[in-house]
UniProtKB/TrEMBL annotation:
Protein name: Adenosylcobinamide kinase
Enzyme class: transferase
Classification via InterPro entries: CobU/CobP (IPR003203), P-loop_NTPase (IPR027417), RibonucZ/Hydroxyglut_hydro (IPR036866)
Gene Ontology BP terms: cobalamin biosynthetic process
Cited function: Catalyzes ATP-dependent phosphorylation of adenosylcobinamide and addition of GMP to adenosylcobinamide phosphate.
Top-level taxon of origin: Bacteria
Family matches, as SUPFAM superfamilies: Metallo-hydrolase/oxidoreductase, P-loop containing nucleoside triphosphate hydrolases
EC nos: 2.7.1.156, 2.7.7.62
This protein's pathway: Cofactor biosynthesis; adenosylcobalamin biosynthesis; adenosylcobalamin from cob(II)yrinate a,c-diamide: step 5/7; Cofactor biosynthesis; adenosylcobalamin biosynthesis; adenosylcobalamin from cob(II)yrinate a,c-diamide: step 6/7
Alphabetically ordered keywords of this record: ATP-binding, Cobalamin biosynthesis, GTP-binding, Kinase, Nucleotide-binding, Nucleotidyltransferase, Transferase
Amino acid sequence: MELTLLGTGAPDGLPRPSCPCAVCATARGPWARAATALLVDDALLLDLTPGAMFAAARAGRSLGAVRQVLLTHPHDGPAVELPALLPPAGRVPDGQVLTLISGHRVRAVAMDAPGTGYEVTAPDGERLLYLPPGAAPSGLPERVERPYEMVVLDVIGRPDAVARLRAVGAVGPTTEVIAVHLDHDAPPGPALERRLAAAGARAVPDGTTLVVGEYHAVPDVVYVATGGRRDGDPEWAARIGLHRERRPGAWRTEETCELTELLGADGPPLLIDCLSLWLTDAMDRVGAWEDERWHDGGEAALRERVAELVAAVRGTRRPVVLVTNEVGSGVVPATAAGRRFRDELGRLNAAVAAECEQVLLVVAGQVLVLRG
């Protein structure tokens, strides 16, 4: 199944007419985006937008073979003229299935905002999910049978929609996630790429044609688990086992706190999970929990070990994602050791973040961009 994105912007397009903001001012050339519209196998048009005929021509496609035009959301403003060669545009009621003469099956998916999503199944079985702007699926099951091959949605406006789909297995490691309905609240250029990458998504220029189901590569990643082992703790063992099951089969796991060696070596990307457990191990090694040992060389030893890690992060040539916990925004620990851990983790987080190109904070399942 081939998908051509005739537009990838918000309903008003990007730049917005007469908008003086910095994003609209720089949305030129490949950064300019018409309102989102999808052409599936030249037979199905999802969302009719102004200039659809010209957009198709610029992409090297034709709308002459389109047999169905479906709308996903209410269109404000002046009516869009329907080209004479296209069938009338309409919406499918939630939950109903439409079968096209081309062999495609289209199922309407209920949204939590005004609009309709569409699940498109190709004659050979690949599945595409397309969602309207500002919307996420409602009434999802606890688990789906298999993930979609491609999901096209408003990642910037509704990042939680991606999270919901991942939680039920509708988005998996081999699902290609494409961001559309891009508006002037999205950063331009490389900043947009980094922000979308945090959600496992990407954006493409208007006119791009993608093959649904072609994206199969699970990245080669070394998952670095710093949690160690806790003998005699069945709950911890069950937690670790569940975590292992969730990782893609192509990932390799290293269970170690010797991070400087991994950061200094060449190899695939590293996912280090997490710095707070690494710090626990480091404080164990230098006896930092006890006041006497802390003041008798433990503090200096810990500072040295942290400095080695920060230097390794600064000098590594591998792509690295470091996971940590944020402390200090709640109740002050009741013990000196707890307060010491809180302070040292805050220092460690700040030092490592200063070496990173992108810093994200996840709160209540929402990703906040602190840098990048």
